[in-house]
Design a protein that fits this description.
Blueprint (H helix, E strand, L loop, with lengths): L6 H15 L5 H9 L5 H10 L7 H8 L4 H7 L9 H20 L1 H4 L2 H14 L8 H7 L7 H27 L3 H10 L6 H8 L3 H13 L11 H17 L1 H7 L1 H20 L12
Helix pairs in contact: 1-10, 1-16, 2-6, 3-6, 4-5, 8-10, 8-15, 8-16, 9-10, 10-14, 11-13
């Protein structure tokens, strides 16, 4: 079934990825991991997202996450697995998702028919995902689907998020953006993380960011003010269009009507979460 142009991309940005990403900035995540002895926020996030792949080390995570500094990863992996098992990390992440969604959305919304409907729509979309060359998606697809509707929804958004992310890594390689260039050029669109958060969460230094800007200026992607040039905007659009192509299957499986409804419902939940303080005020900005 043919979908409206960029409908899947709009759904992902407005309704799917932000709902999944609430856990990365949630105090509930760090509380759950701290109770198990993991007190570093970086270690908690790395363990939470990678645990579905098992007790992996920095090389595997650098390859699959793509835009994290190997130095940062090496500080926490595989050492975190001496404190917590992957199975404990997966369970802690779901407990954190439960607490986070209840806090941000409210008990009435969590128990609503609309949320249960969104969960089933998202799971139906995930039926169209493919495993091959999708390491993060495949690892999370091996996890059981939770029973509670709000966790079913969060699980489904995780699958859809990692499926698109795996394809996005392929597209980044195809257009020739290394990990830091990918982050810097994304920030230049106005939709990416600020330099502070790139350094705090991805482990790159200001020197790393500045060097990437210099490389991108040399290629005509950024101008002297670190803004995207016309060629830079075209590059980013080619990147997103290729990511869309690689990620089309789940949304074609869901269909235009179902996708529109998922975008409507999920977008409403995201707006509620944002108003409740799901994300830091300084998260987005220039690198």
């Amino acid at each position: 079934m043919t979908l409206p142009p960029q409908a899947a991309r709009r759904a992902w940005h407005a309704a799917i990825n932000p709902l999944h990403a609430t856990v990365y900035f949630s105090p509930d995540t760090f509380k759950e991991f701290a109770a198990l002895g993991v007190r570093s926020t970086s270690a908690a996030n790395l363990a939470a997202r990678s645990a579905a792949m098992g007790a992996v080390g920095p090389g595997v995570v650098a390859a699959t996450f793509y835009n994290y500094s190997h130095e940062l990863l090496s500080r926490h992996l595989p050492a975190v697995w001496e404190t917590i098992t992957p199975e404990q990390a997966v369970a802690a992440r779901y407990r954190a998702a439960d607490a986070t969604l209840r806090r941000l959305l409210g008990e009435e919304t969590v128990a609503s028919a609309e949320l249960a409907e969104a969960a089933e729509l998202a799971l139906r979309a995930a039926e169209g995902c493919t495993r091959h060359a999708r390491p993060l998606y495949s690892a999370h697809a091996d996890l059981p689907v939770p029973d509670a509707p709000h966790l079913r929804l969060w699980h489904a958004t995780t699958l859809l998020r990692e499926h698109r992310g795996d394809g996005h890594v392929v597209a980044l390689l195809a257009v020739g953006l290394d990990p830091v260039e990918a982050l810097v050029s994304h920030s230049a669109t106005g939709k990416g993380m600020s330099g502070k958060w790139l350094q705090d969460t991805r482990g790159w230094t200001q020197d790393d960011l500045d060097a990437a800007k210099d490389r991108l200026r040399g290629r005509g992607v950024l101008d002297a003010d670190s803004e995207l040039t016309e060629d830079g905007r075209a590059l980013r659009e080619r990147l997103e269009a290729e990511t869309d192509r690689l990620d089309a299957a789940p949304y074609e499986h869901l269909g235009a009507e179902g996708l529109a409804r998922l975008t409507e419902l999920g977008g409403g939940f995201v707006l509620r979460a944002v108003k409740a303080g799901a994300f830091p005020a300084d998260l987005f900005g220039k690198a």
